[in-house]
Write the C-alpha coordinates for this entry.
Amino acid sequence: MSISWRSSAAAFEQSLARHGVAAGACTVEAAWAAFEEFVQISVEGIEGPEDDGDGFIVEWGAWSWNGHRPALSLGRLLAVTGDDGDGDGDGDDRNDPHWQPQYWKVELQVSFAEDPAWADLHVKGGNSGFDHAAIGEPRAAALADARRFIEQDPLLGAMWRSAPIDLEVTLDRAG
Protein backbone atom coordinates (compact mmCIF):
# COMPACT_ATOMS: atom_id res chain seq x y z
CA MET A 1 0.00 0.00 0.00
CA SER A 2 1.20 3.49 -0.77
CA ILE A 3 -0.29 6.95 -0.53
CA SER A 4 0.25 10.26 -2.28
CA TRP A 5 2.26 12.77 -0.25
CA ARG A 6 -0.69 15.17 -0.60
CA SER A 7 -2.95 12.75 1.30
CA SER A 8 -0.40 11.99 4.01
CA ALA A 9 -2.15 14.03 6.73
CA ALA A 10 -5.43 12.23 6.02
CA ALA A 11 -3.63 8.88 6.18
CA PHE A 12 -2.09 9.85 9.54
CA GLU A 13 -5.52 10.88 10.84
CA GLN A 14 -6.89 7.47 9.76
CA SER A 15 -4.09 5.70 11.64
CA LEU A 16 -4.82 7.83 14.70
CA ALA A 17 -8.54 6.96 14.52
CA ARG A 18 -7.75 3.23 14.25
CA HIS A 19 -5.77 3.55 17.48
CA GLY A 20 -8.54 5.45 19.28
CA VAL A 21 -6.80 8.82 19.22
CA ALA A 22 -9.19 11.78 19.19
CA ALA A 23 -9.32 15.24 20.75
CA GLY A 24 -10.11 14.84 24.43
CA ALA A 25 -9.50 11.07 24.33
CA CYS A 26 -5.86 10.40 23.70
CA THR A 27 -2.89 8.71 25.26
CA VAL A 28 0.61 9.34 24.01
CA GLU A 29 1.11 5.58 23.78
CA ALA A 30 -1.85 5.27 21.38
CA ALA A 31 -0.60 8.26 19.38
CA TRP A 32 2.85 6.65 19.17
CA ALA A 33 1.34 3.36 17.95
CA ALA A 34 -0.50 5.27 15.21
CA PHE A 35 2.71 7.15 14.33
CA GLU A 36 4.64 3.86 14.07
CA GLU A 37 1.96 2.57 11.68
CA PHE A 38 1.87 5.78 9.64
CA VAL A 39 5.62 6.14 9.10
CA GLN A 40 5.75 2.58 7.72
CA ILE A 41 3.38 3.48 4.84
CA SER A 42 5.11 4.08 1.51
CA VAL A 43 4.59 7.58 0.11
CA GLU A 44 4.52 8.43 -3.62
CA GLY A 45 6.02 11.58 -5.08
CA ILE A 46 9.04 11.88 -2.77
CA GLU A 47 12.78 11.30 -3.02
CA GLY A 48 14.03 7.82 -2.18
CA PRO A 49 15.57 6.79 1.12
CA GLU A 50 19.07 7.07 -0.36
CA ASP A 51 18.41 10.83 -0.68
CA ASP A 52 16.74 11.26 2.73
CA GLY A 53 13.35 11.62 1.06
CA ASP A 54 11.36 10.29 4.00
CA GLY A 55 12.25 10.72 7.65
CA PHE A 56 10.78 11.18 11.08
CA ILE A 57 11.50 13.32 14.11
CA VAL A 58 10.23 13.71 17.67
CA GLU A 59 10.23 17.29 19.00
CA TRP A 60 9.16 18.82 22.29
CA GLY A 61 8.90 22.21 23.91
CA ALA A 62 6.55 25.02 24.79
CA TRP A 63 6.01 27.33 21.83
CA SER A 64 4.18 30.60 21.27
CA TRP A 65 1.85 29.05 18.68
CA ASN A 66 0.44 26.63 21.26
CA GLY A 67 0.10 29.12 24.12
CA HIS A 68 3.44 28.12 25.66
CA ARG A 69 1.94 24.84 26.85
CA PRO A 70 4.22 21.80 27.03
CA ALA A 71 3.90 19.91 23.75
CA LEU A 72 5.16 16.81 22.00
CA SER A 73 5.37 16.60 18.21
CA LEU A 74 5.61 13.46 16.10
CA GLY A 75 6.60 14.48 12.58
CA ARG A 76 7.35 12.92 9.21
CA LEU A 77 9.45 14.94 6.77
CA LEU A 78 8.86 14.33 3.05
CA ALA A 79 11.13 15.58 0.25
CA VAL A 80 8.59 16.11 -2.54
CA THR A 81 10.03 15.56 -6.02
CA GLY A 82 7.34 16.92 -8.32
CA ASP A 83 4.82 19.72 -8.39
CA ASP A 84 4.31 20.84 -4.82
CA GLY A 85 0.74 21.90 -5.55
CA ASP A 86 1.13 25.57 -4.67
CA GLY A 87 0.65 26.72 -8.27
CA ASP A 88 3.94 28.57 -8.63
CA GLY A 89 5.55 25.88 -10.80
CA ASP A 90 8.73 25.80 -8.72
CA GLY A 91 8.59 22.11 -7.94
CA ASP A 92 8.92 20.69 -11.44
CA ASP A 93 12.26 21.48 -13.10
CA ARG A 94 14.80 18.85 -12.04
CA ASN A 95 17.05 20.01 -14.92
CA ASP A 96 17.61 23.31 -13.15
CA PRO A 97 21.08 23.11 -11.54
CA HIS A 98 19.66 24.76 -8.40
CA TRP A 99 16.69 22.40 -8.11
CA GLN A 100 15.91 21.09 -4.66
CA PRO A 101 12.97 19.02 -3.49
CA GLN A 102 10.22 20.77 -1.57
CA TYR A 103 10.19 19.67 2.07
CA TRP A 104 6.81 19.06 3.70
CA LYS A 105 6.14 17.94 7.25
CA VAL A 106 3.18 15.85 8.41
CA GLU A 107 2.90 16.41 12.13
CA LEU A 108 0.86 15.41 15.13
CA GLN A 109 1.28 17.88 17.95
CA VAL A 110 -0.19 17.03 21.34
CA SER A 111 -0.31 19.67 24.08
CA PHE A 112 -0.46 19.18 27.83
CA ALA A 113 -1.72 21.18 30.79
CA GLU A 114 0.95 22.50 33.13
CA ASP A 115 1.70 19.90 35.77
CA PRO A 116 3.32 20.75 39.13
CA ALA A 117 5.22 17.46 38.90
CA TRP A 118 7.03 18.86 35.86
CA ALA A 119 8.01 22.15 37.53
CA ASP A 120 11.60 21.06 38.16
CA LEU A 121 11.99 19.56 34.68
CA HIS A 122 11.94 22.93 32.85
CA VAL A 123 10.20 22.39 29.53
CA LYS A 124 12.88 23.38 27.04
CA GLY A 125 12.70 22.68 23.35
CA GLY A 126 14.51 19.72 21.92
CA ASN A 127 14.34 17.00 19.32
CA SER A 128 15.51 13.51 18.54
CA GLY A 129 17.10 14.51 15.25
CA PHE A 130 15.79 13.35 11.90
CA ASP A 131 15.99 9.65 11.16
CA HIS A 132 15.75 8.57 7.52
CA ALA A 133 15.87 4.80 8.01
CA ALA A 134 14.18 2.87 5.20
CA ILE A 135 10.62 1.63 5.68
CA GLY A 136 10.45 -1.86 7.16
CA GLU A 137 12.77 -3.36 9.74
CA PRO A 138 15.32 -0.48 9.62
CA ARG A 139 12.58 2.05 10.41
CA ALA A 140 11.05 -0.20 13.09
CA ALA A 141 14.46 -0.37 14.78
CA ALA A 142 14.86 3.43 14.55
CA LEU A 143 11.39 3.92 16.04
CA ALA A 144 12.26 1.54 18.89
CA ASP A 145 15.41 3.60 19.56
CA ALA A 146 13.36 6.82 19.60
CA ARG A 147 10.87 5.30 22.02
CA ARG A 148 13.66 4.18 24.37
CA PHE A 149 15.03 7.73 24.26
CA ILE A 150 11.59 9.13 25.16
CA GLU A 151 11.10 6.68 28.01
CA GLN A 152 14.53 7.45 29.51
CA ASP A 153 14.21 11.24 29.46
CA PRO A 154 12.47 12.55 32.63
CA LEU A 155 10.39 15.24 30.86
CA LEU A 156 9.45 13.09 27.88
CA GLY A 157 8.63 10.20 30.19
CA ALA A 158 6.31 12.48 32.16
CA MET A 159 4.63 13.57 28.92
CA TRP A 160 4.30 9.92 27.85
CA ARG A 161 2.39 9.13 31.05
CA SER A 162 0.17 12.25 30.84
CA ALA A 163 -3.08 12.81 28.99
CA PRO A 164 -2.85 15.48 26.29
CA ILE A 165 -5.47 18.22 26.42
CA ASP A 166 -5.26 19.08 22.72
CA LEU A 167 -4.04 17.55 19.48
CA GLU A 168 -3.66 18.68 15.89
CA VAL A 169 -2.51 17.01 12.66
CA THR A 170 -1.03 19.29 10.00
CA LEU A 171 0.69 19.08 6.62
CA ASP A 172 2.80 22.17 6.11
CA ARG A 173 5.78 23.16 4.04
CA ALA A 174 8.87 22.73 6.19
CA GLY A 175 11.38 25.51 6.84
